[in-house]
Amino acid sequence: MTENEPQEFQPPPPPEKIEESPTPQMSEIGTVTSIFIEPGKTFEDLNRKPRFIIAGFLSILCIMIFQVAFIQKVGFEKIARARIEANKGMADMPKEQKEAIIAQQTGPVAKYIGYAVVPVFMVIFFVVGGLLYWLGAMALGGRSTFGRGLAVWIYSGWPPALLFLISNLLVLFLKDPSEIEIGTNQQGLVQAGPAMLVSAKAQPVLHALLSALDLFQIIGWVLAAIGLQKVAKLKAGSAWTIVILIALIGVSLRVVSALIFG
Q1: What is the pLDDT along the chain (262 residues), one digit of tens a residue?
Q2: Per-residue DSSP letter, 93
Q3: Distances 27 to 23, 42, 54 between C-alpha atoms, Å
Q4: What is the model's pTM?
Q5: Residue 223, class by beta-carbon neighbours within 10 Å (0-12 exposed, 13-18 middle, 19+ buried)?
Q6: Residue (of 219, 223, 215, 213) closest to 248 by Cα position
Q7: CB of 214 closer than 8 Å to CB of 207
């Protein structure tokens, strides 16, 4: 080829294809309600666009409503006194010192702190759970993000939280305050599993183990397994592996707590 020969025409490279993110088909309010009826389709839509604010807020609200109702029914002072009596380290404490601690724990500042701890703890619980689901999905070959893991964690816990609130409020309003065991019932009056057959005071470790087989928790596990399959594109076995491993971590923490605090 000489310098005077025309160069062969080279077509320009095709423009880079920009993949558009899929558009969600449900509103966030729609996902909050449809998770009860069509969990698979709901998680598919959450995969298109992860959302969790409304479901997370409602879950926190359910726990706070029960806490407020429980305190109003039983009384802040009775709860504080029961906690001190159940604490092995305070068993030999002089009565005057116990009364001083009770007065401190039932003061206005302590009450506000007690109410504020719940949402703060729940937010931390959500973040840790979403992180575990995200890392678990990635470790088993799934495709996920932290936002998607957080959405699965929150949406799998939202229906059990609502069922927990409804069932426990019914029992709370029907039960006499003198029949309520504060040490165990503050986490829920309804025992929806074999833990109801074991006394938490007499056999705290066994009670902690059996409390994992609770109907509310099982519902959450099923929803979480569905969510991980739809959102992280995992097979059923991998999704259930993640759910069960994380559940075992929770059971281990309960058992350790039962061993330490009784």
Answers
A1: 555 555 565 666 665 554 456 787 889 999 999 999 999 999 999 999 999 999 999 999 999 999 888 888 887 777 777 777 766 666 667 777 777 777 777 777 777 887 888 899 999 999 999 999 999 999 998 888 999 999 999 999 999 999 999 998 998 888 877 777 665 555 677 777 777 777 666 677 777 777 778 888 999 999 999 999 999 999 999 999 999 999 999 888 887 776 776 5
A2: S
A3: 11, 10, 11
A4: 0.82
A5: buried
A6: 213
A7: no
